[in-house]
Amino acid sequence: MKPEAAAFRRQADVLLARADTMLLAGLNEDAARTAYLACFHVAQALIYQRTDKTAKTHRGVQAGFLLLTRDDPRVDPALRRFLSEAYEFKSVADYGTGPDAVTSIAEAQNAVATARRFVGAFGALVASHGP
Questions:
Q1: pLDDT confidence band for 31 (50 / 70 / 90)
Q2: What is the DSSP letter of 98?
């Protein structure tokens, strides 16, 4: 694995650990947002590993990730979509106001659990792509 991709991958693990701590503290919006960011970092790792480039925006990472994983038979389509879908957690945590800007404990727990699967699955693809 290229050192840059490995750094992105390690950061995903750090973020998952932080998300677990946030869940325990009842910080649902923050935990779900951090789960998304863990996936974002693994997507960056995959993009860098395969292209030697980094995407600079969330939209760029999502588009690059979707393009690189589009026809890969090893990829679970539902898990693949999670990166784009989970961006909503970031939006709620960063920009949401009022009664609609809430993430339930169940949603946060599901986001963290799905992010853990995402990081595992796509982290393995990064590692399998060679140096």
A1: very high
A2: G
Q: 48 with 60: CB under 8 angstroms? A: no
Which among 66, 90, 74 has a CA at the least distance from the CA of 129?
74
Q: What is the pTM of this model?
A: 0.94
Which DSSP letter does residue 100 get?
G
Q: Do residues 52 and 129 touch, judged by C-beta distance below 8 A?
A: no
pLDDT tens digits for range 47-81: 999 999 999 899 999 999 999 999 999 999 999 99
| Residue of 70, 68, 110 lying closest to 86 (CA atoms) | 110
Domain ranges of the chain: 3-128
Helix (H) or strand (E) holding 83: helix 77-95
Asked if 83 contacts 122 with a C-beta cutoff of 8 angstroms, the reply is no
Give the torsion sign (CA, 21, 120, 82, 67): positive
Q: Which CATH architecture has domain 3-128?
A: Up-down Bundle (1.20)
